[in-house]
């Protein structure tokens, strides 16, 4: 299989790239070359250019045609309009990476299938992805573009801890607070259900949909079947760090109202809600798909990797102070109201 991945080195796509190369496929990566060294010994064919510079892409691709083109960095309709111009005659399958955050909020049924309605009034990111899907489905019906839509949920790799309440520099500061014995903030009461998917498991399902006649014109989410509460998630991270988590629960509404960290989208429009995914559809199309990485095992691998790679230990003093201020404010209200 000859595949072109636009991006190819991100949280989700790097595992796909490595697995495709390991399985002997002819893999091309189209990106700006900033993170290709992360792939290590896995050698792809690199097309170094900016996807938004359409003429340079046309020149670089020359007479190339692909079995599959997958865009991991398309977020808005105009990105897909560009992709249609570039790839409509160059591929037998175009895969768009959407998002499971597009499913209706709040959910009418906590068990999610691909037919669950799409509506997210909280998060513009999700509404943009919904518009992208609508556009692609119109192209499939009216222009015969052979599309497949994939909706990942919370997928994690070795490079970052998958936590909910964090600042602009990522999640490492939360881990630092744990290591320092400081309390960490969990939204709500920590009891809502969430699904964490290891990127290597995701890659198995995704690759199974590539060059698959049963995937054209279809939409799939690819997630683990393991359900965890947010309390269990934070405790698993703390255990992997060798400490015990001190958790302070604060409502998602309050967190969103008292910060500029985008919690009105990422929390209110996503992680506040319990989600359990029915993966029957992708398992029918890809019989070999099975998530084998239990979260407490996978997160230990992530923690070990980050501890060995200081470049992923990004300090965030601003967020750290915000956490202290939020916790002090809550403690002050409790003390005042308990008198």
Question: How would you summarize this macromolecular structure in one to three sentences?
Answer:
With 339 residues, the protein is α/β, with parallel strands linked by helices.
Would you give an account of this structure?
The structure is a single chain. By secondary structure, the protein is α/β, with parallel strands linked by helices. The strands form 5 sheets. It has a 7-stranded parallel sheet, with helices on both faces. Strands 6-15 form a two-stranded parallel sheet. The chain has 12 helices and 15 strands. Strand 1, helix 1 (13-22) and strand 2 form a beta-alpha-beta unit. 42% of the residues are buried. The chain has helices at 13-22, 54-61, 77-87, 124-143, 172-179, 199-209, 230-241, 252-257, 263-271, 280-285, 295-308, 317-337, and strands at residues 2-6, 26-31, 45-48, 68-71, 94-97, 111-112, 147-152, 154-156, 184-187, 193-194, 196-198, 218-222, 228-229, 247-250, 276-277. The protein is globular and about 75 Å long. The protein has 2 domains: 2-156 and 197-222, NAD(P)-binding Rossmann-like Domain (Rossmann fold, 3-Layer(aba) Sandwich); 172-195 and 227-274 and 294-331, Alpha-Beta Complex (UDP-galactose 4-epimerase, domain 1).
């Amino acid at each position: 299989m000859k595949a072109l991945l636009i991006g190819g080195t991100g949280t989700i796509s790097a595992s796909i790239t490595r697995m495709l190369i390991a399985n002997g496929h002819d893999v091309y990566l189209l990106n700006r070359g900033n993170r290709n060294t992360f792939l290590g010994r896995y050698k792809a064919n690199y097309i170094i250019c900016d996807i938004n510079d359409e003429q340079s892409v046309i020149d670089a691709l020359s007479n190339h045609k692909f079995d599959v083109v997958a865009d991991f960095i398309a977020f808005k309709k105009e990105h897909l309009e560009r992709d249609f111009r570039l790839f409509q005659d160059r591929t037998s399958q175009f895969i768009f990476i959407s998002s499971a955050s597009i499913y209706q909020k709040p959910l009418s049924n906590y068990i999610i299938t691909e037919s669950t309605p799409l509506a997210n009034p909280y998060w513009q990111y999700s509404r943009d992805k919904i518009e992208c899907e609508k556009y692609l489905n119109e192209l499939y019906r009216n222009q015969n573009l052979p599309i497949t839509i994939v909706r990942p949920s919370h997928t994690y790799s070795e490079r970052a801890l998958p936590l909910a309440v964090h600042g602009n520099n990522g999640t490492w500061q939360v881990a630092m607070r744990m290591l320092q014995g400081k309390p960490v903030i969990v939204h709500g009461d920590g009891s809502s259900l969430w699904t964490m998917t290891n990127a290597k498991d995701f890659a198995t399902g995704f690759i199974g949909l590539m060059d698959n006649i049963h995937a054209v014109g279809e939409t799939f989410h690819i997630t683990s079947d393991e359900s965890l509460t947010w309390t269990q998630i934070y405790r698993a991270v703390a255990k992997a760090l060798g400490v015990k988590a001190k958790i302070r629960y604060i409502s998602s509404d309050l967190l969103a109202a008292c910060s500029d960290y985008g919690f009105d989208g990422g929390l209110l429009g996503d992680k506040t809600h319990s989600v359990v995914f029915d993966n029957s559809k992708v398992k029918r199309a890809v019989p070999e798909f099975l998530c084998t990485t239990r979260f407490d095992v996978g997160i230990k691998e992530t923690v070990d990797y980050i501890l060995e790679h200081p470049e992923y230990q990004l300090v965030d003093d601003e967020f750290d102070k915000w956490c202290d201020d939020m916790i002090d404010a809550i403690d002050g209200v409790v003390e005042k109201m308990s008198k």
